[in-house]
Design a protein that fits this description.
about 140 residues; alpha/beta; Rossmann fold; Rossmann-like_a/b/a_fold; UspA
Length: about 140
């Protein structure tokens, strides 16, 4: 039985496919879904002191993602939480899955191949390799 499901979403069209896949699962009433998004820190953002105003683009992006995840929450028939974190995406997804003791992680795959996959890395591949629970990859 899937009691806790961590759903890792980005801000691409793939997020809609991931949510659609989640909706196809038969969930128990006491199941819980955690919708998460991991913001990757860029070099310039890491250098900003915490007590200084943050660029408007960061604030807009955060609220845009939060609203998107809240809209996905309304589509779910079970209890859900939202987690917005900053860090290395595969590490943070696995960390959240461990914190919530997830039975399943659902994540999208952009389908990168060849040099793009080597240069940009594959979040889904690393999550599949390192997770302590089952992982459903949505293409």
């Amino acid at each position: 039985m899937l009691k806790t499901i961590l759903v890792a979403l980005d801000d691409s069209e793939l997020a809609d496919k991931v949510i659609h896949t989640l909706q196809q699962l038969v969930l128990e009433k006491d199941s819980k879904v955690i919708l998460c998004h991991v913001f990757s820190p860029s070099e310039s953002e890491m250098e900003l002191p915490a007590d200084r105003p943050q660029p408007e683009s960061l604030t807009f992006s955060y609220f845009h993602i939060e609203k998107q995840l809240q809209s996905y929450q309304t589509l779910l028939p079970v209890e859900s939480n939202i987690e917005l974190v900053t860090g290395n995406p595969p590490e943070e997804i696995i960390r959240l899955a461990n914190i919530y003791k997830a039975d399943l992680i659902i994540i999208g795959s952009r389908g990168l191949t060849g040099m793009n996959r080597i240069v940009q890395g594959s979040v889904s591949s690393q999550v599949v390799e390192d997770a302590n629970c089952s992982v459903l990859v949505v293409k």
